[in-house]
Specification:
The complex is a heterodimer of chains A (125) and B (223). Chain A is an all-alpha fold. The two termini of chain A are 29 Å apart. In chain A, helix 1 runs antiparallel to helix 2. The longest helix of chain A is centred in the last third of the chain and has 34 residues. Chain B has one domain. The longest helix of chain B is centred in the first third of the chain and has 28 residues. Classes of the chains: A mainly alpha (125), B mainly alpha (223). At the A-B interface, helix 1 of A face helix 5 of B.
C-alpha cells in the first residue's frame, strides 16, 4: 500500500535540503544562473529519487514519480504567484519540465533499487 | 502544572540550549527573512496571508523535537540529542503540509462567520502533539477527539500563548527602544524570545493534552 506519511517525509526532507543547498551555494557567488539552477535542480530531483523508495518500499516507482510531480507543481505555483514569472503561458515548457524532472527521479530510483538489491544479495550469501 | 514544566526545563537545560541554537534560531531567521521578502515584493497582492502562514509555521514546525524531549523525560527514557534533530527533519514535511491544509480551511472558512477558522486554529495548535503516530489518519482522528473533549477551552490556551508573546515582545522592544534599530535587530530579538518562550509552551501543551504519555500521573490516579 502507498504510505502517505513516508511520502510527506520524502517531500519535507527534499524541500529542506534544497533550501540548505541553495543557501550554501549563494555564498559561492556563481555568476552563471543556468549552472546554478542546473546544480540545484539535479540535486533536488536525484535526492528525491534516492529517498522515495526508502519509506515506500512497496511502491517505489509510484512514490518517486508522485513526489517529483508534486515538487514540480509546487515550483510552478511558486514561480507564478511569488516571483511573477509567466510560466503558464508556455505549455511546451511545462511539459518539458514535468517530463525531465520525473525522468531524472525515476532513473535515480532505478539505480537505488538495483544497488539495494545487490547489497541484500551480498548480505544473504 | 507550572512546577512540572519547570522541572522538565531544569533537567534538560543543555539540550534546550543546543536545540535553540541549532533549530530555533535558523528556522526563525529563515522564516522572517522570507516574510520580509514577501512584503517587499510587488507581485503579491495580499502579502499578509502567506506571512501569517509563515508565523504559524514557525510555531508548529519546531513542535516535534521539544514534544519528543518532554515525552522522553516524563517516561524516564534515555535519548540522544542527535535523535531530536533527526525527528525535526523527519517531521518537517508532515507538519508543513498539514499546517497548509488547516490554514487554507481557516482562510476559506472566513465566509462562514469565522467558525471554521477557530476550529482550524485549534487543530493547528494541537495536531503536532500526535506527530509520533505512524499513520496520518490516526493522528488527525486523535486530534479531533481531543478537540471534541476540550472544545472552547483550547481558545483560552491560544489566548494565553498570544498574550505571553505580546508581553515578552513589549518588554524586549522597550529594552532597545533608544537605539538605532533596523530589521535584523528585531528578527534577532524575535529569535531570542522564541527560543525562550516556545519550550515552555510546548511542555505545557504536552503535559496538558498528552496525559497518556505521562506514566507517573497515571499511576498517581490509580493509587
Amino acid at each position: 500500500m502507498f504510505d502517505v506519511s513516508g511520502f510527506l517525509k520524502t517531500l519535507g526532507i527534499v524541500l529542506l535540503i534544497t533550501i540548505i543547498i541553495s543557501f550554501i551555494m549563494g555564498f559561492f557567488n556563481i555568476g552563471n544562473i543556468t549552472l546554478f539552477l542546473l546544480l540545484m535542480y539535479s540535486c533536488t530531483y536525484i535526492l528525491n529519487g534516492i529517498l522515495a523508495p526508502i519509506w515506500n518500499s512497496k511502491t517505489p516507482y509510484f512514490a518517486s514519480y508522485l513526489s517529483s510531480i508534486t515538487l514540480t507543481v509546487i515550483n510552478l505555483l511558486f514561480a507564478f504567484f511569488v516571483l511573477d514569472i509567466m510560466v503558464f503561458s508556455d505549455p511546451i515548457e511545462i511539459n518539458r519540465g514535468l517530463v525531465l524532472n520525473s525522468t531524472l527521479s525515476l532513473f535515480a530510483t532505478l539505480l537505488t533499487l538495483k544497488i539495494l538489491k545487490r547489497r541484500r544479495e551480498i548480505h544473504n550469501g | 502544572m507550572v512546577r512540572d514544566i519547570m522541572d522538565i526545563y531544569n533537567r534538560n537545560v543543555i539540550t534546550i540550549l543546543i536545540l535553540s541554537l541549532v533549530l530555533v534560531f535558523p528556522v526563525t531567521f529563515f522564516l522572517y527573512f522570507a516574510s520580509i521578502y514577501l512584503y517587499q515584493s510587488d507581485s503579491i497582492e495580499y502579502a499578509n496571508l502567506p506571512v501569517l502562514y509563515l508565523l504559524v509555521l514557525n510555531f508548529t514546525v519546531l513542535f516535534p523535537p521539544f514534544f519528543s524531549l518532554a515525552q522522553n523525560d516524563l517516561n524516564d527514557m534515555v535519548y540522544k540529542k542527535r535523535e531530536l534533530i533527526v525527528i525535526f527533519i523527519n517531521k518537517f514535511g508532515y507538519i508543513t503540509f498539514l499546517t497548509l491544509v488547516f490554514y487554507f480551511i481557516g482562510i476559506f472558512g472566513s465566509f462562514f462567520f469565522f467558525i471554521p477558522t477557530f476550529i482550524a486554529g485549534c487543530l493547528m495548535l494541537l495536531f503536532p502533539l500526535f506527530s509520533d503516530e505512524r499513520k496520518v489518519g490516526i493522528s488527525i482522528q486523535k486530534t479531533w477527539t481531543i478537540f471534541k473533549k476540550e472544545h472552547i477551552f483550547i481558545l483560552l490556551d491560544i489566548l494565553l500563548i498570544i498574550s505571553l508573546n505580546v508581553l515578552a515582545w513589549a518588554g524586549a522592544t522597550y529594552l532597545v527602544a533608544n537605539f538605532e534599530n533596523n530589521t535584523i535587530v528585531y528578527i534577532l530579538l524575535r529569535a531570542i524570545i522564541n527560543s525562550i518562550l516556545f519550550p515552555f509552551v510546548y511542555f505545557y501543551l504536552t503535559i496538558k493534552y498528552r496525559r497518556d504519555s505521562n506514566f507517573h500521573i497515571q499511576e498517581k490516579d490509580y493509587v
